[in-house]
């Protein structure tokens, strides 16, 4: 069927939407692919829906190819299964909770581990039924704190979520690897530039987990990689290389110095370089940052985090380390309530004397000597030695990761880049099957607890990701696999013979199996060309002035190249260009 612009439900906009910051958001709105209904809630218009469905189909084909079976679960869910795993509480404000008319608690599903686990428990009972991979392409709801960039981070979005169930770890690994390979095929077919990074498992629990990140400057995920070894990891997952402990014997005693007006690392270092022998940098100081942990179902706990003073505490890394607890910086009221915390001069001693848990960066090994707060205004310790003068309660991954840091695999240094998470694969293990006692009868007649994997792809987010990676200042540029139409045929000639010729060409292309968008509007060629660039079909065909001389033009939206071809044989030429 030929789609005619004269009747297509589409209005392109000249101006960028006021709330849009990133190119994909601007272009998808301007080109009439999506329309905003509320923050993070969008309608899909004809062109956008075609891209979404095309992506869905690529995902579906690759999931089917690894033996996944498609089902569809509701988005409206009862509280009980999420209560059983504590996620009703753990999910916090991100969960859309509602009540039905009888007052029963319900939610809009943010992800469906619980439901798939109980579904399998209900249907399967024998080892002979295993393994199984189930998936759905379904609408998810998360009340994101910062819905952003249109459909890139929605509060309603489409996810492909798959779950594997196996009898043992070997089976789980096999299912995990099958998904990993399927995802590689999906993202290759979609022509996305991406990396696979090892990730923290966060609130999901479980062990091995990797994320697929599309490379993009507008991404919210920072990852690091080692160009020498190919190691790549989410910043949250980077494990700091801890030096070997050093001998303590013979180190000079710790001394408290008057260090007036040195409540920052810079002023402290300046004081040391002026007053003490030797040269000092921020790395010689131990900075103690106070935070409050909010663990689900527990009272808030104040802890101290000690990091080398040349590094900031990265709250995302800290939060990943203490998950599911959330992290908050101390307020003025907290400092007032705990007068032993002397702002700018906090040291390990007062923390430990007052029963505050003190966690340090892995670089703070026994035998390292530090300049740090002496818990009195304008006073610091010099030469406070870990393992002699203070003993931390443990280590924590909280310090920022920097370009040039050693790679955890020892192969070189790390460099950072930004990415957008497009997929996530987890070996969950038995977290959910334990919660619901998902057992089948084993070969030996004894029950076997199943082990589960969980695998997500951000289907609607991918529309924005592809737009983000594939556009120019004029508009979108869809890869052929997901373009709403293969060919955008522009009638740029008012002559009746030319119009008839264009209609015939459209019919022939349609008959040849191409999806054709025909710009048959009564608008100027200039307006039509602009729209063609904005909408971004990969092949643009122009029936214009040259028609009288027996030629049409084929433009490649990717390369910008244009070629004149004879009207005779134009169908074959366009088909060849569109399928190239
Ligand atoms: P993010 O870190 O971006 O919030 P997540 O870790 O919460 O993502 P998962 O729970 O792993 O996401 O969900 C699987 C996939 O769903 C993600 O890889 C991502 O592509 C997609 N996704 C998650 N949240 C959103 C959202 N708010 N809008 C659109 N897609 C999303
Ligand atoms: Mg994730």
UniProtKB/TrEMBL annotation:
Keywords, ordered alphabetically: Aminoacyl-tRNA synthetase, ATP-binding, Cytoplasm, Ligase, Nucleotide-binding, Protein biosynthesis
Any Gene Ontology CC annotation: cytosol
Keyword Disulfide bond (UniProt): no
Keyword set includes Glycoprotein: no
PROSITE patterns on file: AA_TRNA_LIGASE_II
Main location: cytoplasm
Family: Belongs to the class-II aminoacyl-tRNA synthetase family. ProS type 1 subfamily.
Protein name per Swiss-Prot or TrEMBL: Proline--tRNA ligase
Source taxonomy: Bacteria, Bacillati, Actinomycetota, Actinomycetes, Mycobacteriales
